[in-house]
């Protein structure tokens, strides 16, 4: 592939990502994944001087062979990204047909979600220092993640007007720009009210923003900050496992279902488009019950 052709390929990748961003309104995380996959694919084509219009299924096999070391899940996602990219090229009239239209991504088993026990959640929620602005902000964030099952991106993008404390719910902007209403337990609402009234003004520092959770500089808290703060309080709570904002989301769903909540209600609260995505949490409870039985039953 000539340098000019490689630049053309990169431009087509950029155009495809732009369509995903503006036309299909993919989340930043999904766009980042597509971008990483397609940059890897573009590098493969460039290294072997393969023009897009000459790409064949045999080349795909060579490309997949070059991915040694990646997990089966990453390889499956890579195949899906390449197929979507070629579909785009056909729609745009760049190619007459996709050379990989019949190729299917290898199936991978969906792992059970990692979650915390109720005791671990209680320890985590009690860990933040209630004598500092950061500690009270972090406590409100942790409580809200667990009480509402929010994704990290949903939490950090919350604005003041998304909270209806009197009615006891949040308006959350989820994947694909879809809004959903999530009820919030009183304990989380109380922590949120305290943060909003007593602590958020200390972060604001005369800046004009409706962002709910703020950094020390008065800017919206980032996903990276959220991850690091959760890791900090997990260590303080004595939780050895590596946890993330999604661990609290998993715990929210698993604990609701363990308590007898309706699967479809949990689906709505999580913002899942397909109930099959929610159904994976139904496997958490029996696994946990077996673990508890083995550990504590006198004849286990």
Which short descriptors sum up this protein?
3-stranded antiparallel sheet, mainly alpha, hpI Integrase, Chain A
Gyration radius over CA: 23 Å
Mean pLDDT, as a whole number? 86
Fourth CATH level, the homologous superfamily of the largest domain: Intergrase catalytic core
- The percentage helix is 55-70%
List the domain count as a whole number: 2
Number of alpha- plus pi-helical segments: 13
- Give the N-terminus to C-terminus distance in angstroms: 64 Å
Shape: elongated
Q: Largest sheet, order of strands side by side?
A: 1-2-3
Question: What is the name of the CATH topology of the largest domain?
Answer: hpI Integrase, Chain A
Please state roughly what percent of the residues sit in beta strands, choosing from under 5%, 5-15%, 15-25%, 25-35%, 35-45% or over 45%. under 5%
Structural class: mainly alpha
Largest sheet: 3 strands, antiparallel
């Amino acid at each position: 592939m000539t340098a000019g052709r490689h630049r053309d390929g990169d431009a087509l990748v950029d155009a495809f990502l732009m369509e995903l961003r503006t036309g299909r309104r993919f989340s930043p995380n999904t766009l980042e994944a597509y971008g990483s996959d397609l940059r890897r694919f573009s590098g493969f084509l460039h290294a072997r001087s393969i023009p897009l219009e000459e790409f064949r299924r045999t080349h795909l096999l060579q490309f997949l062979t070059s991915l040694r070391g990646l997990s089966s899940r990453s390889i499956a996602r890579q195949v899906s990204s390449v197929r979507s990219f070629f579909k785009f090229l056909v729609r745009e009239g760049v190619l007459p047909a996709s050379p990989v239209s019949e190729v299917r991504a290898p199936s991978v088993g969906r792992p059970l979600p990692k979650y915390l026990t109720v005791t671990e959640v209680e320890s985590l929620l009690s860990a933040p220092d209630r004598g500092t602005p950061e500690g009270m902000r972090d406590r409100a964030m942790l409580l809200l993640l667990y009480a509402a099952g929010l994704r990290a991106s949903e939490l950090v993008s919350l604005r003041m007007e998304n909270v209806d404390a009197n009615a006891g719910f949040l308006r959350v902007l989820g994947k694909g720009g879809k809004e959903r209403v999530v009820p919030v337990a009183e304990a989380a609402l109380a922590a949120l009210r305290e943060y909003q009234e007593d602590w958020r003004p200390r972060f604001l520092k005369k800046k004009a923003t409706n962002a709910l959770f703020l950094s020390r500089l008065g800017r919206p808290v980032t996903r990276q900050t959220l991850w690091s703060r959760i890791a900090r309080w997990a260590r303080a709570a004595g939780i050895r496992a590596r946890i993330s904002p999604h661990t609290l989301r998993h715990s929210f769903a698993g604990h609701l279902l363990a308590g007898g909540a309706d699967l479809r209600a949990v689906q709505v609260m999580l913002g899942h488009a397909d109930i099959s995505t929610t159904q994976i949490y139904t496997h958490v409870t029996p696994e946990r019950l077996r673990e508890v039985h083995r550990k504590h039953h006198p004849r286990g």
